[in-house]
UniProtKB/TrEMBL annotation, chains A, B:
Pfam families: TetR_C_13, TetR_N. The keyword Ubl conjugation does not apply. It comes from Aquimarina celericrescens. PROSITE patterns: HTH_TETR_2. It comes from the Bacteria. Signal peptide: none annotated. The keyword DNA damage does not apply. This is TetR/AcrR family transcriptional regulator. Residues 6-66 form the HTH tetR-type domain. Keywords: DNA-binding, Transcription, Transcription regulation. Residues 29-48 bind DNA.
DNA sequence: TCTTAATTGAAATGAACGTTTCAAAATTAA
DNA sequence: TTAATTTTGAAACGTTCATTTCAATTAAGA
């Protein structure tokens, strides 16, 4: 029977993600990926198919990694207020610890490719849907707990928060002043109380 | 004496802007620019120097075009409330009339290149500074008029609005529902009143 | 141990990349 | 008309692009 895949697919995806995140899709060459993964060209093509296909896997990997991290952070928050604050704190922490000011891979990719690549567009639509659904759930809980107001529906607040998160990620590319960003987040969340 | 430049530089910049806006910097090839401008390769290099140099001119052109448009829109608003609403209405209109869902050229470029090209980074820093200064001025006026509250300083509100604008531009790439976006803007501005 | 099938390395594919070159054409002032 | 200088067209520059090819290597089941 055949030889089996020797490399760790997850590790390879991790390395590929770092490159795409740093340079963007069009800014990343196959040679960059070969160098970063220390995989052979043909191994990459055998295992991932094409640059775009690999990138789609990278996006999914990045998305699920973020979800996992979010899950861990939220495990300790048992009410909607803590939850929404933990979410924004996670993004803030991401900004402050990113030495290269890369921003969010998904936001960047949306801006670079959503209007060009149909597969990317539908990934982004699905990502938006999921994120907003998650936020809507949190807001809805907060409204049930009477800690968030009902001036707007949970759905409306969710879109507002989704938009604020993207704004935060864009702002964090050039502004990494912790206090200013913390205050910005407080202003964003103020509307809920 | 020499032959003078025959083509209209502004028209060329307009056409180049359209291409870069549609495809992004790395997604645009010199051939794309030759095709779009119907200028010769060498004419482009004679007149603009390089792809990056041309792109810098495109960015400035786009920025000043936006400023001009903003100036016209704001000519009719004589108080801070009208002004800030006119600003957000302008962005909303931009989103709703953009058939190709390209988003904002400057936001896109910031996400693609700010962490890679020093010249782009400093352009973006200057753009951010100017935009925030403009917003701070409007907020400050509104606070003097007692129509905006003073819960936060004008400077803090300006950063908040700057971030919200970027979020709006990102959101507008996939969501073009006028009512949802109008409501989103109302939520963003609510904190000021 | 032999068969089987995937991984690997290295080279090659042709196309596209940004940029340069240069002679011919064009235009203006003298 | 001539001299000066830029624009223009077309080809070519060397490099890099994503992808393919294929023989050699590897490792597992029979």
């Amino acid at each position: 029977m055949p030889k089996t895949e020797t490399f760790n697919r997850k590790e390879v995806l991790q390395k590929a993600t770092a490159v795409f995140h740093q340079k963007g899709y069009n800014g990343t060459s196959m040679q960059d990926l070969v160098d970063a993964t220390s995989l052979n060209r043909s191994s990459i093509y055998n295992s991932f198919g094409s640059k775009l296909a690999m990138f789609m896997e990278v996006l999914s990997y990045y998305q699920s990694t973020n979800k996992d991290q979010m899950g861990k952070e939220l495990a300790h928050s048992h009410n909607a207020k803590d939850t929404i604050e933990a979410i924004f704190d996670m993004y803030l922490n991401d900004i402050l610890t990113d030495q290269d000011r890369k921003g969010c891979l998904i936001v960047n990719c949306k801006s670079e490719m959503a209007n060009q690549e149909p597969m990317i567009k539908s990934f982004m639509e699905q990502n938006q849907e999921q994120t907003i659904a998650m936020l809507e759930d949190v807001v809805h809980n907060g409204q049930m707990e009477k800690v968030f107001n009902e001036d707007q529906t949970a759905s409306q607040y969710a879109l507002y928060l989704y938009s604020a998160i993207q704004g935060l990620r864009m702002t964090g590319i050039l502004n990494t002043n912790r206090e200013e960003l913390k205050n910005l987040i407080n202003m964003v969340l103020k509307i809920l109380y």
